[in-house]
Amino acid sequence: MCKHILNAQVAIRSPCCKKWFDCAECHQETEKHPLLQSTEMTFACKKCRKCFRKDAAEFEDADEYCPHCD
Protein backbone atom coordinates (compact mmCIF):
# COMPACT_ATOMS: atom_id res chain seq x y z
CA MET A 1 0.00 0.00 0.00
CA CYS A 2 1.35 3.39 -1.01
CA LYS A 3 1.80 5.96 1.74
CA HIS A 4 2.49 8.76 -0.76
CA ILE A 5 -0.65 8.67 -2.92
CA LEU A 6 -4.03 8.27 -1.26
CA ASN A 7 -6.02 5.51 -2.98
CA ALA A 8 -3.51 4.88 -5.78
CA GLN A 9 -5.40 3.44 -8.75
CA VAL A 10 -2.45 2.14 -10.76
CA ALA A 11 0.97 0.59 -10.26
CA ILE A 12 4.02 1.67 -12.26
CA ARG A 13 6.45 -0.78 -13.84
CA SER A 14 9.93 0.59 -13.41
CA PRO A 15 11.84 0.54 -16.71
CA CYS A 16 15.18 0.25 -14.90
CA CYS A 17 14.62 -2.78 -12.65
CA LYS A 18 11.39 -4.19 -14.18
CA LYS A 19 9.61 -4.23 -10.79
CA TRP A 20 6.15 -2.88 -9.94
CA PHE A 21 5.68 0.08 -7.57
CA ASP A 22 2.72 2.15 -6.41
CA CYS A 23 4.54 5.40 -7.18
CA ALA A 24 7.96 6.86 -7.98
CA GLU A 25 8.53 7.69 -4.30
CA CYS A 26 7.94 4.03 -3.35
CA HIS A 27 10.62 3.05 -5.90
CA GLN A 28 13.06 5.58 -4.45
CA GLU A 29 12.51 4.32 -0.88
CA THR A 30 12.99 0.66 -1.84
CA GLU A 31 15.70 0.67 -4.49
CA LYS A 32 19.25 1.97 -4.38
CA HIS A 33 19.11 3.53 -7.85
CA PRO A 34 16.97 6.39 -9.24
CA LEU A 35 13.86 5.64 -11.25
CA LEU A 36 14.79 5.65 -14.91
CA GLN A 37 12.40 7.93 -16.76
CA SER A 38 11.28 6.40 -20.02
CA THR A 39 9.27 8.03 -22.78
CA GLU A 40 6.73 5.22 -22.53
CA MET A 41 5.73 3.99 -19.08
CA THR A 42 3.78 0.80 -18.31
CA PHE A 43 0.99 0.90 -15.75
CA ALA A 44 -1.27 -1.78 -14.27
CA CYS A 45 -4.77 -1.04 -13.01
CA LYS A 46 -5.33 -2.29 -9.48
CA LYS A 47 -9.05 -2.74 -10.14
CA CYS A 48 -9.22 -4.66 -13.44
CA ARG A 49 -5.53 -5.71 -13.49
CA LYS A 50 -5.11 -4.72 -17.14
CA CYS A 51 -1.84 -3.15 -18.24
CA PHE A 52 -1.59 -0.08 -20.39
CA ARG A 53 1.12 2.28 -21.62
CA LYS A 54 1.31 6.05 -21.48
CA ASP A 55 3.69 8.52 -23.06
CA ALA A 56 5.47 10.18 -20.13
CA ALA A 57 5.99 13.40 -22.11
CA GLU A 58 2.21 13.82 -22.45
CA PHE A 59 1.26 12.58 -18.96
CA GLU A 60 -1.59 14.48 -17.27
CA ASP A 61 -3.42 14.08 -13.94
CA ALA A 62 -6.27 12.28 -15.72
CA ASP A 63 -3.77 9.63 -16.85
CA GLU A 64 -3.53 8.31 -13.28
CA TYR A 65 -6.70 6.33 -13.98
CA CYS A 66 -7.23 3.21 -16.04
CA PRO A 67 -8.57 3.80 -19.57
CA HIS A 68 -10.33 0.41 -19.38
CA CYS A 69 -12.28 1.15 -16.16
CA ASP A 70 -13.03 4.88 -16.54
From TrEMBL:
SUPFAM superfamilies per record: CHY zinc finger-like
Q: Per the UniProt entry, what species is this protein from, by scientific name?
A: Verticillium longisporum (Verticillium dahliae var. longisporum)
Record keywords: Metal-binding, Zinc, Zinc-finger
Give the matching Pfam families.
Answer: zf-CHY (PF05495)
List each copy of the CHY-type domain by range: 1-70
Gene Ontology, cellular component aspect: mitochondrial intermembrane space
This protein's name: CHY-type domain-containing protein
Q: Which InterPro entries match?
A: Mito_Tim_assembly_helper (IPR052604), UCP017292 (IPR016694), Znf_CHY (IPR008913), Znf_CHY_sf (IPR037274)
> Cell wall biogenesis/degradation: present as a keyword of the record?
no
Any single biological process term in GO: protein import into mitochondrial intermembrane space
KW RNA-binding (keyword) present: no
Select a single GO molecular function from the record's annotations and give it: zinc ion binding
